[in-house]
Amino acid sequence: MAAPTDNRRIDYVEFNVNNIEASKAFYGKAFGWSFTDYGPEYCEFDDGRLKGGFTTLGTPRPGGALIILYADDLEAALSSVESAGGTIVKPITGFPGGRRFHFSDPDGYELAVWTKN
């Protein structure tokens, strides 16, 4: 049973991907995530705070809810995303309370990264 503090919080995120190894390479290089393989069709990722999975059992469906990551250094995160092969789809822009950019991963999922400063 989950701890009471986990009630109604994001617990897991799952991506349908074309190639698990390519997804591991991208997110490992861009964000330093670690991975646990559970056979050829499923891999769990761990960003140190939240876990999720990559699976080839479905068709990639870019869109839907926007997953937003946090970075202390937004410019360094943008550089890591580009270096890992991601595509910047919205450059760094400010908003009340911080700044963020959007990128797409190798399967076309759009995510964002934000910072407070």
From TrEMBL:
A Gene Ontology molecular function term of the record: dioxygenase activity
Gene3D superfamilies on file: 2,3-Dihydroxybiphenyl 1,2-Dioxygenase, domain 1
UniProt keyword Oxidoreductase present: yes
Classification lineage: Bacteria, Pseudomonadati, Pseudomonadota, Alphaproteobacteria, Hyphomicrobiales
Keywords associated with the record: Dioxygenase, Oxidoreductase
Domain (VOC): residue spans on this chain: 9-116
Pfam families named among the record's database cross-references: Glyoxalase
Oxidoreductase in keyword set: yes
Record's protein name: Glyoxalase/bleomycin resistance/extradiol dioxygenase family protein
Family annotation (PROSITE patterns): VOC
SUPFAM superfamilies: Glyoxalase/Bleomycin resistance protein/Dihydroxybiphenyl dioxygenase
InterPro entries per the UniProt record, alphabetical: Anthracycline_SecMetBiosynth (IPR052164), Glyas_Bleomycin-R_OHBP_Dase (IPR029068), Glyas_Fos-R_dOase_dom (IPR004360), VOC_core (IPR037523)
Annotated transmembrane regions: none
